[in-house]
Design a protein that fits this description.
CATH class: Alpha Beta
Keywords: Kinase, Transferase
Number of domains: 1
EC number: 2.7.13.3
Helix content: 40-55%
Protein name: histidine kinase
Pfam family, one: HATPase_c
GO molecular function: histidine phosphotransfer kinase activity; phosphorelay sensor kinase activity
Shape: globular
Largest sheet: 3 strands, mixed
CATH architecture: 2-Layer Sandwich
Radius of gyration: 15 Å
Number of helices: 3
Strand order of the largest sheet: 2-4-5
CATH topology: Heat Shock Protein 90
CATH superfamily: Histidine kinase-like ATPase, C-terminal domain
Length: about 100
């Protein structure tokens, strides 16, 4: 697998994922929230396609398995490591502890 590195607009990538899943979240009565920290530069260098695929998979699963509450995506800057940290949190049941190692 080759990972590309090119400049991309993080807010734009985030909005496209939000657009894909906003109606599914709304149908289930879930709040879908995307928060990009103001300290993050708008333009990043990385693989936009892979990032969007990962976000699509994680957000899609979060919505699928969450019956009530919310799904939140947050991104912030880790300046010491020149990286961003993206987290997806939901109010769903979670993954059984015995299955975590198998999945990840």
């Amino acid at each position: 697998m080759t990972i590309a590195s090119a400049p991309f607009d993080l807010p734009d990538a985030s909005r496209s994922v939000e657009t894909i899943f906003s109606s599914a979240a709304k149908k289930k009565g879930l709040a879908l929230q995307f928060k990009i920290d103001d300290s993050l530069p708008m333009m990043l260098s990385g693989d936009k396609i892979r990032l969007k695929k990962i976000l699509n998979n994680l957000v899609g699963n979060a919505i699928k398995f969450t019956e009530q509450g919310e799904v939140g995506v947050k991104a912030h800057h880790l300046p010491a490591q020149k990286r961003i940290f993206v987290s997806i949190a939901d109010t769903g049941p979670g993954i059984d502890e015995t299955q975590i190692e198998t999945l990840f």
